[in-house]
Structure formats: C-alpha cells, structure tokens
Amino acid sequence: MKKIRIALAALAFGLAAQSAQASVVTPPDQTFSNNANPAASFALPSAAQNDILIEFTVSYTGVLGNNDFAVFYFGDSNGPNIGLKANCDSSCTNDLFVRMSGSNWLPQNYVNPSDIAPLPASYTLFGRLHKTGTSNNYNRFDLWLNPTEQEKASLTGWDAFATGNSGFSSFSNIGVRTANLNGVTVNFTDISITDVPEPGSVSLLGLAAMGLMAVRRRGARKAA
C-alpha cells in the first residue's frame, strides 16, 4: 500500500509539473548600497500573463532609517512591489511589505511585526502576484514571511497582502528599485522567480506537493 501511495503521489506531481510547464528564473545574488531606479533588471523568457511566484532572502547591514527602500518591482517601477520599506514612512516599526502600485500603502500591506534585525539575521519572503475574479489585470499580491513548505504548497496563510488594479495584464520585466539607502547595504539572495503560464497550475502543483509531504509523514510515523 505504501508503494502505491508513493507511486500515485509521484504521478500526480509529474502530471502537475507537465501541465504547469512553469519557467523559473534564478538571478544571481544582489547587493545594494546606492540609490537607483532601476538598480537591477531581469527579463522573463516570455511575457507573464498568469501567476508569478517570487522567493528571496533579504538581509542588511547598517542602521535602517525611515523609508529605507529596496524592492522588486514587476512591469515598471510604479507596478507591484515586494521587499523592504522601513518603518512605514516613520509611522510604525515594520519593514517588510507588498503593494500593487504607486507610492501609497495600507496597514495590510505590511507584515506585522517585521522590525527586522541586521546581519547575521535574514528573512525569507515569498510572494504570489496574480489575478482574482474576472480581472484581466493583475490585482492581488500576497506575501509570506519565512513561509512553511505547507504554506507555499497551499498558498494560504499569507502575512500581508495588497489589492487594486495594477493597470496591466502581462509583463516581461522584473526590476529592483532602491532609495534612501544612506549607510545601509541591502542583500537579496537565493532569488527564484517562477512564471506559471496556465491558470490553476499553481494550486495543482501545490496539491501534488502536499500529497508527497503526506506520504513522507505517514512513512515517518510508521518508522517511529
């Protein structure tokens, strides 16, 4: 029975992966101590039209000041952002956030609490930019801080989110924008950007991954 479960889980994962045909971009680690727009830029193999997943680790040296800023943006620098925007422009102590566009923010855009410490501390961010309802444009960005494997598989339990019309339905450029980094160096490492070109493929991959996790857990309990 155990072999059957493993085979079924592996088959489900294989079918999900084949269906998704997700392309993954893994840019090199990035370090920023100057202010630039863009500070870095990456091109997707083809224009993204459905879910985009991004995962990276953020750390820094120095002393964060109000609105020290280093983010990934999608489409253009006024598009959806994810990353570091220290102290909510001085109105709080949170530092990690996500937003759909522009320069404004709402409390739900920030991870609470996320008063991040300098190196050797580091933080993993996982984001999902997608379209909800009948929208043709990207209109939601979910953010997880230090996500569990189950959260990444199920795409539930986010720590912050942003909603609103991004103004575009597809894009092929992802960049980094920095500002106010006076005496602060920000590091983005272990960067992974996944383009899932078929609606529903993300949840399909997630279900397959959760199935494999369940098989492993059952095997571990029996071994114990």
UniProtKB/TrEMBL annotation:
<feature type="domain" description="Ice-binding protein C-terminal">
    <location>
        <begin position="195"/>
        <end position="218"/>
    </location>
</feature>
<protein>
    <submittedName>
        <fullName>PEP-CTERM sorting domain-containing protein</fullName>
    </submittedName>
</protein>
<feature type="signal peptide">
    <location>
        <begin position="1"/>
        <end position="22"/>
    </location>
</feature>
<dbReference type="Pfam" id="PF07589">
    <property type="entry name" value="PEP-CTERM"/>
</dbReference>
<dbReference type="InterPro" id="IPR013424">
    <property type="entry name" value="Ice-binding_C"/>
</dbReference>
<keyword id="KW-0732">Signal</keyword>
